[in-house]
Design brief:
By secondary structure, the protein is an alpha/beta fold. The chain is built from 19 helices and 21 strands. The relative contact order is 0.11.
C-alpha cells in the first residue's frame, strides 16, 4: 500500500466573479517512503500549488489525499495543525527564516510549536545543525548568512520534528551550483533515512539527482519516471497527534517581537501611561481632599452629626435605633435630648431664644476657648458668644460669666459659661448651646412638663456619607436636621470634579487604545510572512492569536508600570509643596488605585489587541508566504 496517495486532485482559482482558472486537473499519483521525488515542470504548471496542498497550507481543493490510510479531508483544524507540526516539513526557495531570532532559535521554533521540552529542543537543534554543517553558526542571525547557509538552516528546521515527509519548493533555485549540490546531497541522505522527500524544481539537473521524476504540465501529470533507486532504511510510521506550544514559549516569542521594535513599543507605552497616570492621580487627589475634609476640617466636631425625630413626636424604640445603626455609613447613635426654639437666655441686659439646647452626652465639638461643660455650666457656640460680648476677644470674654436660662413662665436657672465651640452644623448662624441633661430636666419641670426623648443624634462615619445617610433616614420616615451643607457641597464639588477629570482621562485612554490597535495592526502587516512561516510549521490560529494578545498585554503592563512610577513621583512632589499646609493633597496611600491602574492598562491593551490578533490568526498561510 502506498504511503501517500493523491486521487483526482483538482484546484482552481477565482479570477473574477464569473471566471475561474484551472490549475490542477485530476492529479492522481502515489508515493512511498524512502523516495526522493522531483516534481518537474515549468513555472505556472501547478507544482507549488500541489506542494501547498500536500503541506496542509491549502485545503481548498477537490479530490482525496490519503496519508497512511487517513484522508486529510477528514482532518479537523486541530489535526491539520498537528499534521503540519509532525508529519510534514517544508523547505522554501526564499528560506523564510524568522529574521529577529538566531539560527538555533529558528530550528527550535518548530519544536516549540510541538511542546517539546526546552532541553531536548536545544540538543536536537544542535544535532540537526551539525548534520547540515551549520553548527558553527548556531548563534548567528539569518542576515549574517549566505543563501546556501540559510537554505541549510531551513532544512534543519524542516527536520526538527522528525516528520515523515519533506516538501522542498525550489530549494536550489536561488543557490550557486556548489551550494545546490550540497543541498541535494543532504536531501538524498534524508530520503535514505526512510523519509519521503518531494522536491519541486524546474531544473533538469536537480531532477537527475532524484530517484523519481514526476513531470507536470498544464495541471496534469505528463510523465512519471523512476530514474534510480535509493537504498532507504525502513521507517516506523508515527501517530498524527502532536503536542502544543507552551504559554511560556508563546510569551517568550511575544516579548522578542516587542524587543525587536523596542523604540516604537516604548513610545506607545509612554503615550498610554499618560492616560493611566492621569486617572490614578485624579482618584488620588479626590481621596486626598476627602481625607483632608474628614480628618482636618471636621475632626471631632458635630459636623458628622445628624439630628432626627419622629414626625408624630413619639420616642425611638430599641428596634428603630437598631435599624438606624445598621445603615451604611452610620457609626453610632445617641439619644441626647434636644430642646428647640423654647429655651430663653438672659446675659446682663441681653436676652434671646436658643435655637437648640442639647444635652451634653457623647462626643461634643472641640472647644475654641474654655472647656466642655460640667454640672452647672453651659457650652455655647461662637454665634451666641459674639452676640453676648462683641469685640475681637468675644470668645474669652464670656467664659466664667453667668447666664440665665428659662422656659415660658417657669423659674429660671443660673449657669456659668464653661467654653465656646466652633459650630459647623447647619445651625451655626443661630444661638445654640449644650448643657447637662439635669439642667434640661429642671427647665421642663419648671413648666410642669417632662423632658421628651423624641430626638436621636446619628453619628456618621465620614463626610462623604452625610448626604447618603440623610437620604436613607428620610426614606425611613424621620425628620432630619443638622446636616452640614458646606461640607456636603465641598464633597459634591470634589466628586463632580473627579467625574469630569476621569472622563477626560477616559478619552486619553481611548486614544491610547486606538494607538495600540494601530501599532499591532501595522505589526501584523510587517510580519505577514513570518505568520505564514509559523502556520507552515504547525502553528495554529490560536497560537498566532495568543502571541499578539501577549504582545498587547506586555505593552499594557509596561504602560501601567510607567504610569504608577509617574503617579508616585508626582504625588511626592505635590505633597512636598503642600506640606506647609499640613495636608497631603495627593493621597498615595491607596495602593488599590495603583493596582487598578496597572490592571486597567493591561485589560485596555488586550482589548485593543483583540482585533489585530484575530486578523493575524485569519491570514491565509499561502498568501502570507508570498508576501515580500
Amino acid at each position: 500500500m502506498a504511503f501517500l496517495q493523491l486521487a483526482n486532485i483538482k484546484k482552481e482559482y477565482n479570477i473574477s466573479r464569473t471566471q475561474t482558472q484551472q490549475v490542477l486537473r485530476n492529479i492522481s499519483v502515489e508515493f512511498r517512503q524512502g523516495e526522493l521525488v522531483a516534481l518537474l515542470g515549468e513555472s505556472g504548471s501547478g507544482k507549488s500549488t500541489l506542494i501547498n496542498i500536500l503541506g496542509g497550507l491549502d485545503t481548498n481543493y477537490t479530490g482525496s489525499i490519503i496519508l497512511n490510510g487517513e484522508f486529510l479531508k477528514d482532518f479537523t483544524e486541530k489535526q491539520m495543525d498537528d499534521y503540519r507540526k509532525k508529519r510534514v516539513g517544508m523547505i522554501f526557495q526564499s528560506y523564510n527564516l524568522i529574521s529577529n531570532i538566531s539560527v538555533i532559535e529558528n530550528v527550535k521554533i518548530a519544536m516549540k510549536m510541538s511542546g517539546v521540552d526546552d532541553k531536548l529542543q536545544t540538543e536536537r537543534a544542535l544535532k540537526l545543525l551539525k548534520v547540515v554543517k551549520m553548527d558553527h553558526a548556531a548563534e548567528k542571525f539569518p542576515n549574517q548568512l549566505s543563501g546556501g547557509q540559510k537554505q541549510r538552516v531551513a532544512i534543519a528546521r524542516a527536520l526538527a520534528n522528525n516528520p515523515d515527509i519533506i516538501l522542498a519548493d525550489e530549494p536550489t533555485g536561488a543557490l550557486d551550483s556548489q551550494s545546490a549540490e550540497l543541498v541535494m546531497l543532504i536531501l538524498k541522505k534524508i530520503a535514505q533515512s526512510g523519509k519521503l522527500v518531494i522536491v519541486v524544481t524546474h531544473s533538469q539537473k536537480v531532477a537527475e539527482s532524484c530517484s523519481r521524476v514526476v513531470s507536470i504540465a498544464d495541471g496534469i501529470i505528463a510523465q512519471d519516471i523512476r530514474a534510480g533507486k535509493i537504498d532507504a532504511r525502513s521507517r516506523a510510521r508515527r501517530a498524527a497527534r502532536a503536542g502544543s506550544i507552551s504559554t511560556k514559549n508563546i510569551m517568550a516569542l511575544a516579548w522578542k517581537n516587542l524587543w525587536r521594535s523596542r523604540q516604537r513599543s516604548l513610545l506607545v507605552s509612554i503615550a498610554m501611561s499618560i492616560g493611566i497616570a492621569a486617572v490614578i492621580l485624579i482618584l488620588s487627589v479626590s481621596a486626598g481632599i476627602t481625607s483632608y475634609v474628614n480628618e482636618v476640617l471636621i475632626s471631632g466636631d458635630q459636623s458628622l452629626w445628624l439630628e432626627i425625630e419622629n414626625p408624630d413626636g413619639t420616642s425611638f424604640t430599641s428596634s428603630e435605633i437598631k435599624a438606624i445603626k445598621k445603615l451604611d455609613g452610620v457609626s453610632d447613635t445617641s439619644d441626647a435630648a434636644v430642646s428647640k426654639n423654647n429655651v430663653n437666655y438672659t446675659f446682663e441686659n441681653i436676652s434671646g431664644t436658643l435655637l437648640t439646647l442639647t444635652s451634653a452626652e457623647g462626643t461634643l465639638p472641640a472647644a475654641v476657648a474654655g472647656e466642655q461643660p460640667s454640672e452647672g455650666r453651659i457650652y455655647i457656640n461662637e454665634t451666641l458668644a459674639e452676640e453676648l460680648s462683641g469685640g475681637e476677644d468675644y470668645r474669652s470674654a464670656v467664659i466664667g460669666q453667668p447666664i440665665e436660662l428659662s422656659m415660658g413662665e417657669g423659674e429660671g436657672i443660673s449657669l456659668v459659661v464653661s467654653g465656646v465651640y466652633e459650630d459647623s452644623s447647619s445651625y451655626s448662624a443661630f444661638a445654640c448651646a449644650y448643657a447637662e441633661r439635669g439642667v434640661m430636666e429642671e427647665l421642663y419641670a419648671s413648666i410642669g412638663r417632662t423632658l421628651p426623648s423624641n430626638r436621636l443624634i446619628v453619628v456618621v462615619e465620614s463626610a462623604q456619607y452625610l448626604t447618603a445617610v440623610s437620604e436613607d433616614l428620610q426614606t425611613l420616615g424621620y425628620s432630619v436636621s443638622g446636616e452640614n451643607s458646606s461640607l456636603v457641597d465641598i464633597l459634591t464639588y470634589v466628586d463632580l470634579g473627579t467625574i469630569v477629570l476621569t472622563a477626560v482621562g477616559a478619552i486619553s485612554l481611548a486614544v491610547s487604545a486606538i494607538m495600540i490597535f494601530i501599532v499591532l495592526y501595522i505589526s501584523v502587516i510587517e510580519r505577514t510572512k513570518e505568520i505564514g512561516v509559523m502556520r507552515a510549521i504547525g502553528g495554529s490560529k490560536g497560537n498566532i492569536r495568543r502571541i499578539f494578545l501577549f504582545e498587547a498585554a506586555f505593552l499594557g503592563a509596561i504602560s501601567g508600570a510607567i504610569a504608577v512610577v509617574v503617579s508616585l513621583a508626582v504625588a511626592v512632589i505635590v505633597n512636598a509643596c503642600t506640606a506647609s499646609l499640613g495636608v497631603n493633597i495627593v493621597s498615595y496611600y491607596y495602593g488599590v488605585y495603583y493596582m487598578a491602574g496597572l490592571l486597567l492598562s493591561v485589560v485596555l491593551s488586550v482589548c485593543a489587541g483583540v482585533a489585530p490578533a484575530s486578523y493575524a490568526a485569519s491570514l491565509d498561510p499561502v498568501e502570507s508566504l508570498r508576501r515580500e
